[in-house]
Design goal:
This protein has about 250 residues and is an alpha/beta fold. The protein contains eleven helices and ten strands. The strands form three sheets. A six-stranded parallel sheet has the order 3-2-1-6-7-8, with helices on both faces. It has a two-stranded antiparallel sheet with strand order 4-5. Strands 9-10 form a two-stranded antiparallel ribbon. It binds flavin mononucleotide. It holds the Pfam family Flavoprotein.
Amino acid sequence: MKNSRPTVLLGVTGSVAVFRAIDLASQLTKEGYLVDVVLTCGALQFVRPLSFEAVTHRCAYTDQSPGILAGRAIHIELAERAGIVVVAPATADLIGGHACGLAQDLLSSLLLATAAPVLLAPAMNTRMWGHPAVRDNVALLERRGVRFVGPESGLLSCGTEGPGRLWPVDQLYAKIQELVPMAAHPPDSPKREGKELAALGQRSSSLPQEGDKSKEMNEMADKKKPGKKPAVRKTEKNSKKGPAAKKK
Ligand SMILES: Cc1cc2nc3c(=O)[nH]c(=O)nc-3n(C[C@H](O)[C@H](O)[C@H](O)COP(=O)(O)O)c2cc1C
């Protein structure tokens, strides 16, 4: 019987709070979630994908990742496999871009392509958070159904005091669990599993198998849980750049 574990798409953007996202990815993985991490170019200024790969045991994606994953455009595949899209930390830049409907990189593209709930956890300087442009963007996104958690108040790394700190990781985890509980994802029926495997088999046989880092890492992660079938994972082709080059 297939044990269907919810997938959390964790978007990570260019904030000093980026390191706390590693703890979040680690906690989610330990609790049984599959965690797909997508880092923006901004996030890569602070941290490397390997930090996330080491705790999620899965490939982390960037704008340099191959454009095709499991035989589909990477932003569509990641958007559709996600049970929830969480961006933590979410910069003013990410919030503004999403409010404007921009698809300028992998993360902003999949945010437009997903049907899953979206949870943003902002982190920024207090005056940035209070700026009318940011306030308007947050209000607009909330009207569209995007959920926000935080920021909390405190002493920020820039030295100012006030709202702007990333919401505490354990409370972020609790919020994700509330929105996508493990219990809502019981083992699938053998009938559905058979259909899914047949579909995956069809797709994977038409694609090359070599040099597929994400396939190998995701299989490793899947095998860690008892009851999980050895992945009949889909493949990606290392031939294309991300869906769009970063604007900066
Ligand atoms: C040291 C440093 C720290 C930063 N911290 C933040 C932050 O906490 N929140 C934020 O909104 N922007 C912050 N920025 C600005 C963003 O990194 C910048 O807007 C970047 O373009 C964001 O790109 P991204 O949203 O694609 O990751 C910081 C910049 C620097 C140089």
